[in-house]
Each structure stands twice: as structure tokens, then as C-alpha cells.
């Protein structure tokens, strides 16, 4: 039956002292001390993050129109 290797066993672990020198617990769950700001009443805030704004078909049409205008201008310059 397998057993642990005694040469790989380490002794007790000694943790380093706190570099700030404060003996009592601190910075533990600091988020509980500072509340999240609430949305203003009537702002319509529902979720945690704002929804992504996706460009609509108007932007696609404007891009297509710009591309066609550039192609027409290029063709007219060659003449």
C-alpha cells in the first residue's frame, strides 16, 4: 500500500508578520464599509452595467454611401 515519502515532509509553516505592524484584523471585507452608490430615483437604471450600444442600419448605410462616393470619385478622376 502506498505511503507518503518521509523525506518530502516539511515542518510547520511560519507565516511572516504583517508589514504594517497592525495586530488586529484589517482590510477584511472592506467592501462592507463602503456601500455602492444607489441610482437616482426615476433614472430607469435596471441592470448592473449599461447595455452595449450597437450601431444600427443607418451607420451601415452611411458607410456604404461613403464607399460608393469614393468609387465614383475615383472613376471620375481617371477620365
Describe the protein:
The protein has one helix and no strands. The model has no long low-confidence stretch (mean pLDDT 78). The chain has one helix spanning 57-78. The chain is mainly alpha-helical. The chain is 28% helix and 0% strand.
- Distance from first to last alpha carbon: 91 Å
- Portion in strands: under 5%
The ordered H/E elements are: H
Helix content bin: 25-40%
* Main sheet makeup: none
Query: What number is the mean pLDDT?
Result: 78
- Please provide the count of β strands: 0
Q: What gyration radius follows from the Cα positions, in whole Å?
A: 33 Å
Keywords:
79 residues, elongated
Could you provide a short overview of the structure?
With 79 residues, the chain is mostly helical. 28% of the residues lie in helices and 0% in strands. The mean pLDDT is 78.
Question: How does the SSE layout of this entry go?
Answer:
Layout: H1 57-78
Amino acid at each position: 500500500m502506498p505511503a507518503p515519502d518521509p523525506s518530502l515532509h516539511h515542518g510547520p509553516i511560519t507565516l511572516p508578520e504583517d508589514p504594517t505592524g497592525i495586530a488586529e484584523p484589517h482590510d477584511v471585507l472592506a467592501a462592507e464599509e463602503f456601500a455602492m452608490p444607489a441610482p437616482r430615483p426615476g433614472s430607469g437604471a435596471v441592470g448592473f452595467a449599461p447595455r452595449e450600444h450597437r450601431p444600427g442600419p443607418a451607420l451601415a448605410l452611411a458607410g456604404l454611401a461613403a464607399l460608393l462616393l469614393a468609387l465614383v470619385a475615383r472613376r471620375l478622376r481617371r477620365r
